[in-house]
Amino acid sequence: MASKLEALKSSVEKVLGEKLVRATIALEELTVVCAASDLAATLTRLRDEPELSFEQCVDLCGVDYSAYADLPCDGPRYAVVYHLLSLKHNWRLRLRVFAADDDFPVLPTSVEVWNGNNWFEREAFDLYGIVFEGHPDLRRLLTDYGFVGHPFRKDFPVSGHVEMRYDPDQHRVIYQPVTIEPREIVPRIIREENYGG
User: Fold this and answer.
1) pTM for this structure?
2) Please, are residues 99 and 121 in contact by the beta-carbon 8 Å criterion?
């Protein structure tokens, strides 16, 4: 497995050249990092170069690195991770791209390279607030259109601020402040004498 990964790493380094920021092999997977400004060209090369032939983007997801692995963030906060698959060569690649601005994360869209990324990018926008510049229809996908915030950000409140419910008197969905009272549940433990031996 290591020789195949080393061959893939060598091919990626050769094809991407100066557009490659970093390439690492860990846990039997190759992860490469490129700059946001080079994203469209990098994705196109990874797809079209016969030596690589990553025909499919299997998944695209947002990541909030503000407290990754309980460590303080020492670089950009938001990233998008692309999981690519080459059926021709039977190998996989993880590509990570960081958004430069933590307050308003923006990355170029990848819909022109893989049309199926349309909904993946909408999901990352909805849940993390990452804006994909040039996306044909960037709008919320999983939360309500009136939803405030992005629920997968690590600073999003666990209980939220408002809840919605259907009001039968008004015949519509209404929003109201959260009514959940914080409480601590301590399980009741019953110990039997001589249990287990």
Assistant:
1) 0.80
2) no
* Superfamily name with CATH number, domain 2-151: NADH:ubiquinone oxidoreductase Nqo5 subunit (3.30.460.80)
Q: For residue 174, what is the enclosing H or E element?
A: strand 172-177
Q: Which of 110, 154, 149, 150 is nearest to 133 (CA)?
A: 110
Strands 106-108, 78-86: pairing is unpaired
Q: Cα separation of 27 and 121, whole Å?
A: 27
Query: Token match 């804006």: residue?
Result: 131
Higher pLDDT, 71 or 7: 7
- Using CA atoms, how far apart are residues 58 and 44, in angstroms rounded to an integer? 15
- Quickly state the pLDDT bin for 3 (edges 50, 70, 90): confident
What is the amino acid identity at position 58?
Answer: V
**Residue in the block written with tokens 């601020």:** 161
Three-point CA angle 111, 115, 118, nearest 5°: 65
DSSP tag of 17? G
Phi-psi region of 144 (alpha: psi -120 to 50; beta: other; left: phi over 0): beta
Structure tokens at 29: 């997977």
